[in-house]
Amino acid sequence: MKKIALFLVAALVTTLSLSAQSTTQVKWNFSSKKVADNTYEIHMTATINGNWHMYAQDGGDGPVSTSFTFTKNPLLTMDGKVKEVGKMKKVYEESFSSEVRYYEKSVDFVQTVKVKGKAKTNVAGKVEFMVCNDKECLPPADVDFKVAIGG
Predict the structure, then answer these.
(1) Taking Cα atoms as reference points, which of 138, 140, 128 lies closest to residue 52?
(2) Pick from 129, 150, 140, 143: which is nearest to 54 by CA?
(3) How confident is the model over 12-58, as pLDDT tens digits?
């Protein structure tokens, strides 16, 4: 019984440390920009280290695509989907046996939001992403964010 418990603890520590490695390969910056009355762009910018790449929101069959989950806020409405601004690469990856889409160095994800009235509030949520290089992929990671807007 002790061996099983020790194995489970070791497996959990390994999984957590590998997931943490993803967040060391990608640095996130979250900001807002007022673009019109009560309308803001939320910029979720990923800076990707070295020879790593991060998959697009439609990364293809195989890798975990980047995805955003926004916390419901009655003072906000999302205007369209998250847009990607960056140099996307489309390549066939042998490891996934399919064409994949990803970004190297950096990518800016932009979500337009509208604030109801003159309220000061936050856009909050979570981004899930996965990074690979030519030798390995790291487990998907989640990063929480909160950006102040309005007022």
Answers:
(1) 138
(2) 129
(3) 334 444 445 677 899 999 999 999 999 999 999 999 999 999 999 99
In percent, how much of the chain has pLDDT > 90? 77
Question: How far is the C-alpha of 60 from the C-alpha of 69, rounded, in Å?
Answer: 19
What pTM was estimated for this model as a whole? 0.84
Residue by residue, DSSP assigns the chain as -HHHHHHHHHHHHHHHHHHHHHHHHEEEEEEEEEEETTEEEEEEEEEE-TT-EEEEEEEESSSPPPEEEEPP-TTEEEEEEEEEES-EEEEEETTTTEEEEEEESEEEEEEEEEESTT-EEEEEEEEEE-EE-SS-BPPPEEEEEEEEEE-
Residue 29: strand pairing partners = 45
Phi first, then psi, for residue 64 (nearest 5°) are: -80, 115
Report the alpha-carbon distance of residue 22 to residue 20 in Å, rounded. 5
pLDDT tier for residue 3 given thresholds of 50, 70 and 90: very low
Per the prediction, the chain carries an average pLDDT of: 88
